[in-house]
From TrEMBL:
Protein name (record): Diketogulonate reductase-like aldo/keto reductase
Species whose genome carries this gene: Leeuwenhoekiella aestuarii
Alphabetical UniProt keywords: NADP, Oxidoreductase
Keyword Acetylation attached: no
Catalytic site: 62
Marked site positions, Lowers pKa of active site Tyr: 87
Binding of substrate, residues: 120
């Protein structure tokens, strides 16, 4: 089944959307937050790649980059067929320290480039120098695309004021309780791909009556409804799981399409409620 939202086709698990620089990003991926380094994350990555995923999202802060790298190697899937993301941690922000941290991330992942590297949080007074380092790494060909995570509109505007290259991605908390439509619109206007973390509200999606009812209507789980809603909103999504069954199940969202009415029903669940930290008020 194929549908188009925001001029973006949704076809299958290996389908991609094009970033502002032309690099193709698979719109469904595996997130590995809280996946333990070693066997747990190695298995999760291998199961995802076996199931047809081609997008893996990690971060220095997850402390599992080595396991992700091993999972990729053991899967036998050629590196160039994969989209690999990592993120720079807050304590490494700054120009020189970013360059050093990036090299260490590459070593842990056992790869010579990243498809996407993100500034994990907008550390005030540091993210502009950090961004200059990302621009250098991008120009040097070590990263195919550069972006940010947890940047709100005013932080994006501030960054872009002095940037040579605009962020290509902004990875944000995004789910039916936190839609941030104005921020979505701002990103769309500036050709910044919106990406969701915590799409399933850390499990709360399964308990929501509206999502359960929609699941019954479409013969799907609440998770399927939310992940499909993400994609039809033009939002890349990376549900986290270390369970083989859940990893496979999360990808079963390409054989149905939410009606416009049901999309609006989910949009209306928005209550501006965060599950994670506030990008305007974090202390780590």
């Amino acid at each position: 089944m194929s549908t188009t939202t925001l001029n973006k086709p949704i076809t299958n698990l290996q389908g991609t959307w094009e970033l502002s620089n032309g690099h193709k990003m698979p719109y469904l991926g595996l997130g590995v937050w809280k996946a333990e380094d070693g066997e747990e994350v190695i298995h999760a990555v291998k199961w995802a790649l076996e199931a047809g995923y081609r997008h893996i999202d990690t971060a220095k802060a997850y402390e599992n980059e080595e396991g992700v790298g091993k999972g990729i190697k053991e899967s036998g899937i050629p590196r160039e067929e994969l989209f690999l993301t990592s993120k720079l941690w807050n304590s490494d922000q700054g120009y020189e320290s970013t360059l050093e941290a990036f090299d260490k991330t590459l070593k842990r992942l056992d790869t010579d480039y990243l498809d996407l590297y993100l500034i994990h949080w907008p550390v005030e007074g540091k993210y502009k120098d950090t961004w200059r380092a990302l621009e250098k790494l991008y120009k040097d060909g070590k990263i195919k695309a550069i972006g940010v995570s947890n940047f709100l509109e005013h932080q994006l505007r501030d960054l872009m004021q002095d940037a040579e290259i605009n962020p290509m991605v902004d990875q944000l908390e995004f789910h039916p309780w936190l839609v941030q439509k104005d921020l979505q619109d701002f990103c769309a206007t500036h050709n910044i791909q919106y990406e969701a973390w915590s799409p399933l509200m850390q499990g709360k999606a399964f308990k929501n009556e509206t999502l359960k009812q929609l699941g019954e209507k479409y013969g799907k789980s609440p998770a399927h409804i939310v992940l499909r809603w993400d994609l039809q909103n033009g939002v890349v999504t990376i549900p986290k799981s270390t369970s083989k069954d859940h990893i496979i199940s999360n990808a079963e969202i390409f054989d149905f399409e939410l009606s416009e009415e049901d999309m609006q029903t989910i949009n209306a669940l928005d209550k501006h409620e965060r599950i994670g930290p506030d990008p305007d008020n974090f202390d780590f």
